[in-house]
Amino acid sequence: MVVIRVRTPFGMFRSSFDSTVKLVEVIRKVQEDLLKKNQEVDGPALFVVPKKSDSSPLPANKTVGELNFTDGQMLEMVGGYQSTIVEIPDSEKSIFDLPAIPYEIPRCALHGPDQSCVRCMTAKYIRVDRKEKADCVGVEADKKSVAVFKYNMEKNLGYSVQRLGILYGKKTEEGWLQVDFIYEPPQENSATDILLLRNETEQINADTIANSFGLTKIGCIIGQTAEDCEDEEFILTAQQILMSAEIKGEAEDFIILFSGIRDGTPFVEGFELTDQFYDLYKRRYFLPPKDDFFLQVKEPLWIEAKEEMEAEVEFFIAPVPLKEYRNDFRCEFPVENRQVKQSPEFLRTLIAQQPGARLVDLINDFHLLIFLGSFLGETDLAALCSEIQHGELAEGHELIIRNIAEA
């Protein structure tokens, strides 16, 4: 099976195909997917390989194998849809396409409505200052989970691309954020960017598992390239902090772990984005970034005693203390959405290698539960997590899991 990705004007299509399948069948499946999204199909489509000097359409009568497509092959759709202009409601528009929401300035009592003073001239700007100390007391990250993420960055990816994981955990009574799980969503990785791919079912399963154990989304971890880490002052790019704000959503507490390598030594550091950054983000002040180190804005900011239409990324980042701890969850099953795919064979091997262990103890693994979630409904998955906490599996769930292992 080969995973084929198709870039269309309406989003990314991604599916697996046998090498004997003809390209025309791939085209048909993409068009069926567009119809499900209420996009109108208009005649036959043509596929090309993006960024290739020879951009002539690929022959639709040839098979995936004959076209020598590799796993993860990227194609671009040309034609085969109706290019209609649809009025998009504000609720569905990107924050970059909407006007900023400026702060309301109280009327100055010193002058009339058609005059101005120094107070009013400076009050209309948002003042941006560096923040030296984070609000978060600190982060305690599970050693196993972080080690598995770092291992993939070092041994499999060679710190050659960026990669992202979503952190799940809780806030302790002392105010520390405790990281227990790292979920790695579907994504495309390059040396300069991370493109998150939507898988709503898997994301719901990740949230269900976390919530069942009393955990919630508390941050993200970003693996950086070795080249970026050569600069000792480098932390995060403008695009990465905007992506982090989108991932945060309505989460109350949110931190960012930076995973990199410098002078041959892997490391992880903790940071948080300032409240002022999140406020500006909600007010839609930011424009799509033009470079890695500056955020362009729609309305002027007051930075270091002058008006600016861009701000350095470092103005919105504060370091957070980080230390290790160990939780009781296992972290042995292959991680979701990596090059090595999760499969029943890994579950079968896990059970066979520890014949004396109870099944309820073996499946106390976030990544294994993500895999089992693809066979179970949301309700059954939550029930399974509850059984793990109580240390006893229902007979039906144990039978299902053993059947999955033997598939």
Q: What is the structure about, briefly put?
A:
29% of the residues lie in helices and 25% in strands. The protein is an alpha/beta fold and 407 residues long. It has 3 domains: 2-78, Ubiquitin-like (UB roll) (Roll), CATH 3.10.20; 139-325, Cytidine Deaminase, domain 2, CATH 3.40.140; 344-405, no CATH class.
Largest sheet: 8 strands, mixed
The run of helices and strands is EEHEEHEEHEEEEHEHHEEHEEEEHHHHH
Domain count, please report it.
Answer: 3
Estimated radius of gyration: 25 Å
Content of β-strand: 25-35%
CATH homologous superfamily assignment of the largest domain: Cytidine Deaminase, domain 2
Organism: Vannella robusta
GO biological process, one term: ubiquitin-dependent protein catabolic process
InterPro entries: Npl4, NPL4_C
GO molecular function, one term: ubiquitin protein ligase binding
Any overview of this molecule?
Helix content is 29%, strand content 25%. It contains twelve helices and 17 strands. Mean pLDDT is 86; it is low at 80-88. A hairpin with a 2-residue loop joins strand 12 and strand 13. The strands form four sheets. It has an eight-stranded mixed β-sheet with strand order 16-13-12-11-7-8-6-17, sandwiched between helices. A four-stranded mixed β-sheet has the order 2-1-4-3, covered by helices on one side. It has 407 residues and is an alpha/beta fold. It folds into three domains: 2-78, Phosphatidylinositol 3-kinase Catalytic Subunit, Chain A, domain 1 (Ubiquitin-like (UB roll), Roll); 139-325, Cytidine Deaminase, domain 2, CATH 3.40.140; 344-405, no CATH class. GO terms for molecular function: ubiquitin binding; ubiquitin protein ligase binding. Pfam families: NPL4.
